[in-house]
Amino acid sequence: MKLLREILFPLIAVLAAFLVGAIIVLLIHDDPIETYKLLIGSALSWPDGIGYTLFYATPLIFTGLAVAVAFRCGLLNIGAEGQLYVAAFAAAWVGITFGGVEGRSIANLSAWLLVPLACFAAMASGAVWGAVPGVLKAKFGSHEVINTIMMNFIALALVSYFTQYHYKAQGDPILQTVPISASAHIARLGKFIPGLPERIPLNIAFFLALLACVLVYIFLWRTKWGYEIRATGANPAAAEYGGISTGRQIVLAMAVSGALAGLVGVNEVLGYRYRYYDSFSSGVGYGFTGIAVALLGRNHPVGVVFAALFFGALKRGGLFVDIFTEHVSKDLVEVLKALVILFVAAELYFRGRLGRFGLMRRAKI
Amino acid sequence: MLELRNITKRFGAVLANDHVNIKVKSGTIHAIVGENGAGKSTAMRIAYGFYTADEGEIIVDGQPRRIETPHDAIALGIGMVHQHFMLIEPMTVTENIVLGAEPGGAVALDLTKAAERIRKLSEEFRLAIDPHATIEHLSVGQQQRVELLKALYREAQLLILDEPTAVLAPQEVEELFAILRRMRAQGKTVVIITHKLDEVLAISDEVTVMRDGRVVGELQTSATNAAELARMMVGRDVLLRIEKPQAKPDSTVLSVEHLTVTARDGTQRLKGVSFQVRAAEIVGIAGVEGNGQTELIEALAGLIPHAQMSGRMEYLGRDIAPLDARSRRELGIAHIPEDRHRRGLLLDFDLKENSVLGVHYRPPVAVSLGSVLLDDGAIRKRTERIIEDFDVRPANPDLPARSLSGGNQQKLIIGREFVLQPKLLLVAQPTRGVDIGAIEFIHRKLVRLRDEGCAVLLVSAELEEVTALADRLLIIHDGEIVGEVDPTIATLEEIGLLMTGGKEQ
User: In A, what residues contact B, Cβ < 8 A?
Assistant: First the structure.
């Protein structure tokens, strides 16, 4: 019953969004059915549609998980965006500095060492970037939303600076670092899956994302740390009563959240562009879309996977809607995204109302 | 002026007001007294339109009226000052007062006239409030007068004050009473809800006494005294009896000396409290709620920041003041909190998760990988044991705690703390909002725990409960222990008088 509700409400939100989206398509004189056929068909075609949908979904799984973990502790991590920037840069930095890149390396590690090291650097830097607002909240009670937003600006400015002045190839007109060492690359799935061309950037990081989901699930529901994080989020006063240091949980949750967001850097740098490309997330806003993913996925790892796949498919399908319809642009996808969020939020609102009503009736004298 | 006729109000299964009749005469100060949960506030909230009555009618100036929202009440000239002020701190007095009825056109806000009127009202009743002052710069007493002004500005003829002195210092109380008398002189009617008998005697003309949701007395203040009121307030026709063997107290388990707790706002909630609890005895703390009991229990449980406390707390000969909540639990101190929803439970978590709160990090709950992974089997077993031993219904470990009734939630918490086999149990309001059957059950369990050698410190607003359970009874008033009585011989009047700040006669 509970499970059914957990699945049903997001589905209703998605359907309602598509319904309203259809009206918008009608209003601009296009055929909604054709548009949706195009949208869904192109997102699920083999191999390109599915390949790209999964590729787009990968960073969203990471950021969705990041937001979900923080949310389970009662925190809204708006800073996944900044966390993934520092993490991606850190991954690239490791790939350059320890990968034997001419003139820039201090070591030349083998792939077996370099890849884990780069992944670790991404997670660690994301964790630190996330932990800072956590510490500020735990120590001084300053709100994590404000601080994570500010940390986003700092992150972007900082990595842009390092890219521009220290890690850009000489004369390169694009703001990006030099390529990382080939031994820091992780394999694209096209290598293993017949029929999937290697030009599609879907890579091992997708499996890493699925693994992260399993680990996050175990962490949150099967370990004492997860219990403490969730207790802090559910009722800080009761958590304290149970001997839980809520401040410590806030820092821990933000660090784990940041580390998860940081894994976007693995997909982006080690699996896709093989360098740090400045502002790579700005068009999509992986960090911000992660909030929508977590919201639609009900802050549960399994929900996050499906929500990320959904948003990934929208992104892929949107391109084709743009090209092959007369009036509808790919902004329809943005509209649908917004509507989904709106309906999910509305559902929470209605449940909140009902909850409050229920509370009123149970109010003590 | 105002009359409540046969007002009945239920909250779920709780009968908050049972055919309540209250008659407030115009131009008087009318006190409504009773213990916590007697239904005083409920009755007045009905009059103010916060709640609607299930039965009965409200008569204003001789006319039956429907008051469904505070808006209706204001239109009828009824104003209310709540215990917790409803003011916006960064805004000025004038801005706060006009809020909801802003003068001026559709866009412009004309505050000059309003400020002028507020200044005049303030002068008329000698409230000494500057209309342009910012709320956050005012003292609590001044903020209360702003609330009074708010009602006067809306031309209230009848003012209801809910526990107005709870937040005031003694001299502020005097000032407030002077203001209320001036209001009466100007023809206003005042209803004051309180449980402090000395105040009732000092200020009111008439008094209505409530108990268990019913009106048990209507008196002229001049014709009564504190002892009579105390008896009416706390007296019961049938006294609750608990069969318990004589306590055989052993060595001292807890020794508290000069414990002082200062709240964040600088007020002292506990003013140098000292007492001892020995093994195998129940020490009861009786008092009107809000006199420092909450702080006492939380300080002992390790839930109050060290910076806000001073004094000694010794547990089994060891100073526990520097220890955090977890370390105290590990030493065998269990705690049943007064507010099970706020402190005691994770309402959205299931019973399993709730029954390991506090032990979730150590074996047998957390096991492999250096006590990291939770052992679901062990948790389930523990939960089932609590459910069985403490008769928690429905007996389903997978249900969220929210779905249980208050009594069963309480039994779950008690079970969780009892299986720890504590040496010291801190227990506050163990039977609040719990049905009769569960009350008896909980009382028996507490006595049995005592007989097994546990030291029990019991706080309850239910006077009957503490007198029946406690082997020794301390009375707390305004952050101080004002007396110790033997509960087997002390009368309820005597205790009631002490806890309401009255002097022993």
Answer: 222-225, 227-228, 230-231, 234-235, 237-245, 361-365
User: Using a CB-CB distance cutoff of 8 angstroms, which residues of chain A are in contact with residue B12?
Assistant: 361-362
Per-residue pLDDT of chain A (365 residues), as tens digits, is 567 778 888 898 999 999 999 999 999 988 999 999 999 999 999 999 999 999 999 999 999 999 999 999 999 999 999 999 999 999 999 999 999 888 888 989 999 999 999 999 999 999 999 999 999 999 999 999 999 999 999 999 999 999 999 999 988 999 999 999 999 999 999 999 999 999 999 999 999 999 999 999 999 999 999 999 999 999 999 999 999 999 999 999 999 999 999 999 999 999 999 999 999 998 788 999 999 999 999 999 999 999 999 999 999 998 888 888 888 888 888 899 899 989 888 876 666 554 444 333 333 22
Short-list B436, B489, B479, B440, CA closest to B288: B479
Beta carbons within 10 angstroms of residue B12's beta carbon: 13
Q: Which of helix, strand or coil describes residue B120? A: helix
Pick from A225, A228, A363: which is nearest to B11 by CB?
Answer: A363
Distances (CA, A) of A32 to A27, A37, A193, A334: 10, 8, 34, 16
Angle (CA) B483 B489 B492, round 5°: 65
Integer Cα distance of B289 and B505 in angstroms: 23
Task: Provide the total of helices (H) and of strands (E) in chain B, helices listed first.
Answer: 17, 20
Q: Do A241 and B329 touch (CB under 8 A)?
A: no
Query: In this structure, which amino acid lies at residue A133?
Result: P
Domains and CATH numbers, chain B: 2-234 (3.40.50.300), 252-499 (3.40.50.300)
Contact B357 A230 (CB under 8 A): no
**Taking Cα atoms as reference points, which of B449, B450, B454, B430 lies closest to residue B440?**
B430
Closest CA to B268 of B302, B237, B242, B304: B304
Pick from B409, B379, B199, B412: nearest CA to B288: B199
- Residue count of chain A: 365
HEC-encoded secondary structure of chain A:
CHHHHHHHHHHHHHHHHHHHHHHHHHHCCCCHHHHHHHHHHHHCCCCHHHHHHHHHHHHHHHHHHHHHHHHHCCCCCCCHHHHHHHHHHHHHHHHHHCECCCCCCCCECCHHHHHHHHHHHHHHHHHHHHHHHHHHHHHHCCCHHHHHHHHHHHHHHHHHHHHHHHHECCCCCCCEECCCCHHHCCCEHHHCCCCCCCCCCCECHHHHHHHHHHHHHHHHHHEHHHHHHHHHHHCHHHHHHCCCCHHHHHHHHHHHHHHHHHCHHHHHHHHHHCCCECCCCCCCCHHHHHHHHHHHCCCCHHHHHHHHHHHHHHHHHHHHHHHHCCCCCCHHHHHHHHHHHHHHHHHHHHHHHHHHHHHHHHCCC
Residues of B in contact with A235 (CB under 8 A): 342, 345-347
B462 CB-side CA count, 13 A = 21
Question: What's the CA gap between B115 and B133, in Å, rounded?
Answer: 11
What's the angle, vertex CA B77, arms to CA B163 and CA B141, rounded to 5? 35
- In this structure, which CATH number among 1.20.1260, 2.60.40, 1.10.3470, 3.30.2010 belongs to the domain A2-364? 1.10.3470
